[in-house]
Amino acid sequence: MINFEHVSKRFDGGHTALSDISFDLNKGEMAFLTGHSGAGKSTLLKLIMKIEEISSGQVIINGKNLNKLSKNSIAKLRLAIGMIFQNPMLLPHRTVFENVALPLQIAGMRQHEMASRVRAALDKVGLLYKEKCSPISLSAGEQQRVGIARAVVNRPAILLADEPTGNLDPELSYEIMRLFEDFHRVGTTVLIATHDIGLIAQMNHPILTLQKGTLFQGAIHG
Amino acid sequence: MAKNTKAAKTTEKESMLFKSHRLAFRNGWSQVVQTPIASFVTCLIIAMTLLFTTSLLVSLKTFRHVADSLHAGNQVTFYLKNDTSEVTIRTALDQLQHNDLVRQATYTSPEQALRELTAQSEFKEVLAEVQNNPLPPVLSVSFNGQDQQQIKDLISSISQQPFVQAVHLDSEWFERLFAILQFGNRLTYLLTGLFLVGIVFIISRTIQEATSRNHQEMVLLELIGATTAYIRRPFLYVGVMLGCGSGILASLLLLGLFWALQQPFNTLLTSYSLSYPTILQPSTILFVLLCSTLIGWLGSWISFYKYANLHHN
Ligand SMILES: Nc1ncnc2c1ncn2[C@@H]1O[C@H](COP(=O)(O)OP(=O)(O)OP(=O)(O)O)[C@@H](O)[C@H]1O
Ligand SMILES: [Mg+2]
After folding, report:
1. Bridge partners of B76?
2. In CATH, what class is A1-80+158-173+193-222?
3. Whole-structure pTM over 0.80, yes or no?
4. Which domain range does residue B97 map to?
5. Where are the domains of chain A?
6. What residue owns the CA closest to ligand 1's atom 16?
7. Separation of alpha carbons A133 and A193, rounded Å
8. ipTM score for this prediction
């Protein structure tokens, strides 16, 4: 499902954020991505979304080579991937409900179906009672959870998360991880970047460790 | 079966597109009403510009029509040589009467002219004693005033006939008038072009403000899988709404203006015993609406194009 072959990423400034990364995450698998700050975790996730371009190598998502995608296909790819960003990127002038509904609107879903999906997603992150609030009025952890609801609302085939539990207390962090496991259990491919070594040690999933842009350990499937 | 699923897919795609248009329309509308005063002022400025150019165009068209009809009644008098034979004159007259450009052609013989003159004159006795009739044979011709150039050509070709002594046409001031109208025409079209460019610019500025206001949202939409067309659509609607709104405003102003002008205009026309339907025709209004809407759409395209270039390179 997510296949990296000798992928390197060099930024315009000349900094090499990722070098020669190869791994393979099968459909329905769940894995963690760890590493020190600046190791390249966010960059790796952005490559999957084609938010950043790779410098060399190949990224193949669901059989599609990202090097060869048209603009519209990139949009389609992103719609099929739920991404939880490191900063939640919520729209301040829209309610929590409207923020979560965005991916469904883009997908052109019917109004009443949309409403029930949005409420279900908000319920999963425990924020249904805040649906009419503005994101500005929420705490950092609550905002992060709205971002999670927005990422999962479209039931994406792939779920990417960049520090999804960064602003959450241990109990809530664990609950969110369980939520991701639920998605994994119904067949979603999940890749989670996190610092929280203690938390991922409690769970039994492969771990990809980045160090200064190279895959250090835990390369799955060779 | 396969055909069925394909058809179902197509209708699903269509309904998706429809929904996205409805959503874009709503979003566009909320953009417009979010800054009601700015939107109204934009519309008003555009409407004023449209009002100015349209009334100029309409007035010019009306003047042209009036001038043409006046010119059409214009008569040219050909004084023929005294020794021209009756046959030559009859043939020429016959030809003129069968020419499409000629409305009326009449021949007045010297005898007839003398008789008329005698009848009207105070010097009946003096004229009665004139032995040699000094009056020339005369052809009077009036034209159908459609194509001025053709008429001119016809007049000059008749003038060059050997039997024509002199031509009297009092159309010089018409020619001046037409030259002025021609100038006015050119000026109006140039001004209209400039103003249209100005309107496109105004709309694209307004949309640019809207895009920068919504920059954060547009970035996010792109990240979570919206196509460029999807992101652009609400702004196209904003442009169309502003354009259409301006068109409606301009039409109302135009109707008011020409309603006020119609009465004095009619009086003027009657004094020349001419008629002209209504100055402002429904097709003009329709044209204004169509044009302004199109310009709005174009303006928003341009500003979105600029926006996309700015943020992707
Ligand atoms: N747009 C950019 N231009 C230049 N360098 C960049 C850019 N984005 C990231 N980098 C660099 O690439 C490296 C990896 O960044 P990245 O954001 O992937 O780290 P990270 O592992 O997510 O760190 P953190 O845990 O702090 O979020 C860093 O050294 C960073 O400075
Ligand atoms: Mg990061």
Report:
1. B141, B169
2. alpha beta
3. no
4. 75-169
5. 1-80+158-173+193-222, 87-155
6. A40
7. 29
8. 0.91
